[in-house]
Amino acid sequence: MPIIEKYYHLRLPDTKITEYVLEAIDQTQYGISVKTVKRLRKKHGLLSTRQQVHTDDAIAEKVFKIRESYPTAGVGELLKMLDDEYGMRVSNRAQLISLLRVIEPAELAGRKGNKLKRKRFWATGVNDVWAFDQHDKWKRFGLLFHVGVEVYSGRVLWLKVWWSNRTPALLASYYFGAVRDTGGVPLLTQSDPGKEAVGIANAHTVIRQHHDVTLLGSIQHRWKRKPGTNVKPEIFWSGLRRGFSPGFEDCLEDGFIFGWYDADDNLHILVFRWLAIPWIQRELDSYRHRRNTRLPRSNKKKFLPHGIPDLIFERPDRYGAQDFKVLVDPAIVDATEARFAPSDHPVFELVPAWFKFKIEAAYAGLNAPVVSVSTFWETFRALLRAVSGDLTPEDLHLIHSRPREDDEAPADFFEPEPGGAPWPDELGKLFYPKSVTSPNMPHADADDQVPIQQPEHGGGGVLEGEQDGEEEEDEADLVGDEIPWAVYTDDEEDNVV
């Protein structure tokens, strides 16, 4: 039954649900018909659109509730939220559009601007490229976003909010989470240039090289140096800004307008962070789920397959596509994560442990109120008062003397330690020539070729651009802790990747 429910919520007809179920079961022992699917749906309360028969008044009531948090959501997003949040299946877009013409005519007209800018992006198939990017529009609130997208299907692999989005260890943890969720890695990762991206770039390169020795001496990451060329994440941020951000942004802005929140007070920052980040993350999880399970509008100018992102990602063969996912050894993933995203890194701490104990007790004392757009600041103010009353002078000194976190990635964060062994034994032995020019990377631009240069301290090769072109004649193999590293600096003249 769970598999029927899954495809029911993807709004597939019973005939399609039956096809997917048959593909998932052993047909030599089991079978299922369209009639059986219909019967099971009704038995478990999964009614079709016609069977639900919602009135305009009932739909309007739920639309008004949704508008409290999502005042600018479009028709497709509303249809999905009505289904996911309230189990209401509206017959078609036309019915909802007719209703919106009555209850919000000006807003409906404002969403029909035809203001899209078209850009070209190529992808060979599913898991050819994972592209990621950060989003800083809420930095004034201390909330920073990061997204990873599988570019062919459009599936959002991760969508995160935290108090940082430029610490390599944090971003690498998002990548490792997606690797475990999907059971493999893509051929390439991709991002804009930046120090924060070297964690994912290096981690992905190490994993790929362990599973394909022909990649030794190359970096399996594509840097999109030209502005606006990391297309898929930028398209996603545009949609998030239109459909998700406005309602929550207006809510958070009220704290500044009415003086409830002081961004220069460390106590305010800690309480805000503890309350806001988990709440916004839950909302982002719902938004990501809707994006991944909703059929986008058809676009005749788009050559990539038209379908639900999750279905394209899971069954590319149904869309005439190939899956390039590289299956990986879990032990290699664990060992690589321990190096690039160590769990004891301070970036993973939402608030200090001692403060977490106090604020959780204060929140429980308030009967753990549900946080929403309409209750956030009321809950924040009550929680601030409760925590303040439980703090000792020593606690207050710790809070107000606490330095602000630096969200900039250190330039040498991933350089090998001179003479050290930065890798656990589980990663095994790696063999690299002292100096080698990387082969042409799949689908990479001409300026993405990355020569490797051996550093003076004798560690791994440092990946840099535009060297003098001379190669050492000594091609002796290096073993163990000597690996290539991706390093990024702000010096444009060095063309560093």
UniProtKB/TrEMBL annotation:
InterPro entries noted in UniProt: Integrase_dom_put
Positions of region (Disordered): 401-497
Segment forming the signal sequence: none
Pfam family, one: rva_4
Domain Integrase core positions: 126-301
Biased composition (Acidic residues): 465-480
Name the UniProt record assigns to this protein: Integrase core domain-containing protein
Organism lineage: Eukaryota, Fungi, Dikarya, Basidiomycota, Agaricomycotina
